[in-house]
Write a structure and sequence with these properties.
With 379 residues, the chain is mainly alpha-helical. The protein contains 17 helices and seven strands. Helix 9 (178-191) crosses helix 11, helix 12 (226-243) crosses helix 16 and helix 15 (304-316) runs antiparallel to helix 16. It has helices at 16-19, 27-34, 77-82, 89-93, 115-118, 129-139, 149-152, 157-171, 178-191, 193-197, 199-216, 226-243, 251-265, 283-286, 304-316, 329-352, 361-374, and strands at 2-4, 8-9, 49-52, 55-58, 96-100, 106-110, 123-124. Strand 3 and strand 4 (55-58) form a beta hairpin. The two termini are 30 Å apart. The structure holds iron/sulfur cluster (2 copies). The site of one iron/sulfur cluster has 12 residues, from helix 1 and helix 5.
Length: 379
């Protein structure tokens, strides 16, 4: 059974996914693509993939940065000549990702690093059900026995679904701070598995526990302490490093990356050093941890995409287990809700390049695209 998250998406044919991202291709796909019978003179290249750390990806043009199959109108040449089915599954599925959850069940959700998903425009995702089911069948995703007991943290399917649904609905309410929901999740974990697995009690107490957490959790002020600053900086750094992957893993590039990483870790440097698409915000000048330098309560719509992104991961369960380094449920949940802090810091970094002190929806959108692009992907 395929469960499709409630999102909207219609491809805007911007070509970003074929330009900015490294797209994986399997050995079987490489073999099939190499044998495609291109009409004479139309084969773009025979050298279409590269290998990074033992994994194959479509090669990018050294000058334009585009996938070697991308044409000047941001369309895939392979798709144009042979149709969608001849493409690699990653290409066919994007921006959707699948996860085998409970026995016999699979969820799919679209990633927020696609501008159409980020802006929540276009068809409801369920419109693509037939196509997604075909891709799922072709991918031969191993359904197996679903989540392991460790991944489930000892919780029952019913309790996990009830808790995720409660948090999903809460997160979509703009007046409920994400850090209060994080505190609620931590309190539930402390109460223990038997408590959370008592479904009737859980459903009864969740609203009052949430209200208590709301009253008792102070407003989020990321980077109050040095350890917190280091943690957030390292998350930002991971996002920037992953996002600038171009397939260049030469020693020169590695040294450069290590140098930039150290600088940023120390609170210096500039995201622009990681790629021309990153904001030009000298770290020290952006003052992202200085609460006084930033408006205290940005309008709720600023964080709209962040709330939707977290809600999608809660709905699709794509935040623990195989979707997040095999992490158990509560740890994955804590990491997911913690992204709100990293997003705020990244949004400030983005805003600092053009309108320091205030946040606009575009700043948060930048942060969400970057964070979701890396979610569960950095090894
Ligand atoms: S990034 Fe999204 S909107 Fe742009 S081409 Fe890819 S799927 Fe389409
Ligand atoms: S093969 Fe086609 S769809 Fe896949 S990344 Fe390249 S241009 Fe995009």
């Amino acid at each position: 059974m395929l469960q499709i998250a409630h999102q909207r998406f219609t491809c805007q044919e911007c070509g970003r996914c074929c330009r900015r991202f490294l797209v994986p291709v399997t050995p079987l796909e490489i073999e099939a693509i190499a044998k495609l019978p291109w009409p004479p003179g139309e084969r773009p290249t025979r050298d279409f993939y590269c290998s990074i750390h033992g994994h194959a990806f479509f090669r990018h043009d050294a000058h334009t940065g585009d996938c070697v199959y991308l044409d000047e109108h941001s369309h895939c040449r392979m798709h144009a000549v042979f149709g969608a089915k001849c493409k690699a599954l990653s290409c066919r599925a994007y921006p959707f990702e699948f996860l085998a959850t409970f026995p016999g069940e699979v969820t799919t959700a679209a990633r927020y690093d696609c501008p159409a998903v980020l802006s929540n425009t276009g068809n409801p995702a369920d419109h693509y059900r037939q196509n997604l089911e075909e891709i799922l069948q072709d991918s031969q995703l191993h359904l197996g026995k679903g989540f392991s007991t460790t991944e489930l943290d000892g919780l029952t399917r019913e309790s996990i679904l009830a808790l995720c649904e409660f948090l999903r609905k809460s997160i979509l309410e703009p007046d409920i701070p994400v850090n209060a929901l994080r505190e609620l999740a931590r309190r539930l974990e402390r109460l223990g598995r038997p408590f959370v697995n008592d479904l009737e009690t859980l459903k009864t107490v969740l609203p009052s526990m949430r209200d208590k957490a709301l009253r008792e959790t102070p407003p989020a002020t990321p980077g109050r302490t040095w350890p917190e600053r280091i943690r957030i900086r390292s998350k930002i750094l991971n996002c920037l490093r992953y996002d600038c992957q171009t397939g260049d893993f030469s020693w020169g590039q590695r040294f450069r990356q290590a140098f930039l990483a150290t600088k940023l870790f120390m609170g210096h440097g500039n995201p622009r050093d990681f790629g021309s698409h990153q904001p030009d915000s000298p770290f020290a000048k952006a003052r992202i941890f200085d609460a006084k330098a930033w408006q205290s309560s940005p309008s709720p719509e600023v964080f709209d995409s962040l709330r939707r992104c977290i809600a999608t991961r809660l709905e699709s369960l794509q935040f623990f287990g195989k979707a997040y380094y095999g992490t158990p449920f509560f740890k994955g949940l804590d990491e997911l809700l913690e992204t709100a802090e990293t997003a705020l810091a990244l949004a400030r970094l983005h805003a600092a390049a053009s309108h320091p002190g205030t946040l606009a929806p575009a700043d948060c959108d930048f942060a969400v695209a970057l964070i979701d692009h890396c979610h569960g992907k950095i090894s």
